[in-house]
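USER: Study each token:
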Amino acid sequence: MNGQKQRTIDATRKILMILAIFILVILGFLAQRAVPFMMDDEWYSTNLATGQPLAGLGDVIESQIWHFMNWGGRCVTHGVLQLTLMLGELGADILNLVMILTLTLLICVILREKSLQTFLLVHSMIYSMNANLKMSMLWQAGTVNYVYSSVWILLFLLPFLRILGEEENYARVPDWVKAVVLIPIGIMAGWSNENMGPACFLLAVFTAYYVKKYRKGAITGWMLSGIFSSLAGSILVVAAPGNFERSSVLKPQTFYDRFYSMLTAGVDFLLPSVVLAVCLLLIRLVCVRRKLNCMQWALLGFAIISYGAMVLSPHYPDRATFGTMVILILFSVSLLSEKEQKTNAFGTLRTGLTACFFLGAAGRLLAEILYL
């Protein structure tokens, strides 16, 4: 009887999770449809070198060469942006939704979480803790710059985080395959944006050092592939001639101004993500008395570096915190993983947080749909 009752509870729980995910997907798509192409989208819909409407891949390549030399180094993300703009609003909105779901799935894959509850929790957190939902997940230029780039950044980080997560048997994919695949992904991750790209490079270097120093293992070819490809991408995004052309027309800022801007962004834009991460960290260290594993320390370091690197930027808009938020979500959910539930009382907390973040995500999406 008890077994039958438990199966009924589990089935009901599964149905509720599927329904909640379906609701967020529908609301997410409607919110996408509520925000048309606007602002930078209109400029990137043209060949940047000639001012004519985009007519094909050749125009995108010509535009990004001009962009690299005259405006900024984010050629990968802005090239992808131009390709999505050529799909039209409906096609771009569908692709955006797919990429948001892919981002959610990647976080679950990195943490080896297969439950529907984890998927719902992560998906809800991305929407509800976002500093500027409209400009980073609904506006086309923002979606590509932050959601899309986070997807290929997590793809790049996946093998490194798996190694740091103490997975000795993570060798299902041959090393030479990983080495080849990491070349384009590493370049894209490094070339994504000015704070996340260098952070990817540093995490790859740390992983190689950790394996060599503490695991007494060999630095493999795929690690070197990831290190050098992400370094190349980081150099391209930071050292692009267009960055210096653009900065020459901006008002100069002192280091103090930039440092103050970075601190303000941390308080104004990242507070929910930071508060959650700190609370869960304190629960683990003080109440549960369990140490962090190497992967979790690496995620914390990555978040701090990607946040602190923005001190070099003359401006720290709210949407630019998206990548750091994703890393903090990855860290927080790692503390709430099902493996943790087997040894502590995180299960109830996990369920409560899932419900709260779902309601927050649904509310924010409804607000965007209703133009509130």
User: Anything to note?
Assistant: The chain is about 75% helix and 0% strand.
